[in-house]
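To whoever picks this up:

The parser on our side crashed when reading a file containing two proteins. I've narrowed it down to the boundary between the first structure block and the second sequence. Both blocks are reproduced below exactly, byte for byte. First block:
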Amino acid sequence: MIKKILVANRGEIAIRVIRTCREMGITAVAVFSEADRNSMHVRFADEAYLIGPASSNESYLVIENIIQAAKKSKADAIHPGYGFLSENAEFAERCEKEGIVFIGPSAYAINTMGDKITARKNMMAANVPVVPGTVEPIKDIKEAVETIKKIGLPVMVKASAGGGGKGMRLINDEKEIVAGVSAAKSEAKAAFGNDAVYIEKYINSPHHIEFQILADKHGHCIHLFERECSVQRRHQKVVEETPSPIMTPSVRAEMGKHAVSAAKAVDYSSAGTIEFIVDDDLNYYFLEMNTRLQVEHPITERVVGVDLVKEQIKIANGEPLSYKQEDLKQNGHAIEVRIYAEDPDNNFMPSPGKVKHITEPLGLGVRHDGYIYEGYEIPMHYDPMISKLIVWAPSRDEAIDRMKRALFAYKITGIKTTISFLSRIMNVPAFREGKYNTHFIQDNQKYLEPEKNASQKIRDVVSIAAFIDYLADIDSRKPANGNSVQQQSNWKICGRRKSMNRL
């Protein structure tokens, strides 16, 4: 029985896992780099251990350091969260060798589904629809040219290993083939140490829809319905929602069955996600499997009513699934947005620095998974995502309105964030209508660009506020005989003059 879990991660996901540990009466152990000494997840855990310098290559990605921390703390199990070592088969194997429970799938499942070419072969064998394309790595440019001519343009060149949009190139014209394939191979080699790429037919107007699955070690597997993840920037998800606005009951049932078949094909256990690419006619094809907990898992938890981390821990304990497929249903609508420490008005440049003030959104149907606090210095060494904002409401329209309200209430100063950009997304007609695909951001630039006169409006508001403050101060200090009062603050006088010039 698992009594102590080391969380091999940082930030909001570490806090998220620790919360469930606390509910289950399990001791939670945090690990941290030198840059994360003051991180909230370190304060939140029952115990915490330093695992190395700021760079993730010297701390969070060093298997030996994580294992030694687990041994020192006498942890029974390790939860990897997402990112870092969460989909590292070597790490899963090492945990098993050391007698530490890895809260995730087997190394075999990670390896099989982590390599996209191998995954495609397994899905074809399991009769799961896959996008037309190659089933072996492309050897050279000549083969690439011949293959693309057979498949037909446009095509997508993809790295066999890894993910996150790296090693991907869309090719629309024959003139782009040599440069596109070369660039994809080079990027894949740099990012994953493996330059193997394959080619898929590109689906026009693609929708990115994924199915959450849970599988135990007794052969049982269920799906927890879909998430719509088509609002993306540079192949990275920005907004997710469930249910998908384009889904029908019959297609949902079919895709759910194929998602379960995909998981069973590799003897999967734990939480995982089967990703599909879907066209406007609701034809769908297997894209890849994420053999871990997803960033966007909270919207599924809210709509289906299942704590996915708790289920992961139970499965790792050897327990059978707590639910049967017929027990599950979708209730209402949930939306998640990812808050990044980036400047959306300056090409999304990273914005590390000290948080001067934060006001978290509250109220009915609002969940905030974050880790920053006033005075916290956001390090430059890691992913710039600082929190996730999740809302739930009985209907999609109400959920969008609730998200707009929550984003309006979410205030952070000292750094730049993407809050304003996300607010603009909520107002785009295509999003409101649920008629969007993975081209959403590039197709709606006119709605997503900041107001050109926004800075002027801010100056006007500041001036008006200063003038009102000035008048209120005058009124509160005016003697009964009406005589003049002493000289006011130069700041207020300046504000008054600017306000009078504008009003």
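<<boundary where parser fails>>
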Amino acid sequence: MLNNNNNYSDRRIFERVPLDLSVRFIDTYHLCEGEGKTVDISAKGMGLVTEHNLNPYTPLELWVDIPGRNQPFYTRAEVVWSKPLAENLWRVGVEFERADFMNVSQLLNIK
């Protein structure tokens, strides 16, 4: 059951699991590339840290590098929120275009 406060994390349906992997992305609105590190992942979204300030509603294409695999995890997503952590460093929450249980489960089994 959802509580009445406005904290986004309290409205999540899928649990986020910590995950530390390299991620590359393309901001498809501004046509610029970037990279960062994943912080956590769920079937519907991902948290990441990057040196790029990504504004909410920014559409992204994401590639998460999976150790020991030739193909990265690819998905399309939209930035839901972004907050500065330090100078030139942002924590970003993205929502996948559609839930991807199979591919996310493969990411979680890399350990």
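After patching the parser it read the second block fine. The helical segments are 101-108. The domain at 17-108 is CATH 2.40.10.220 (Thrombin, subunit H).
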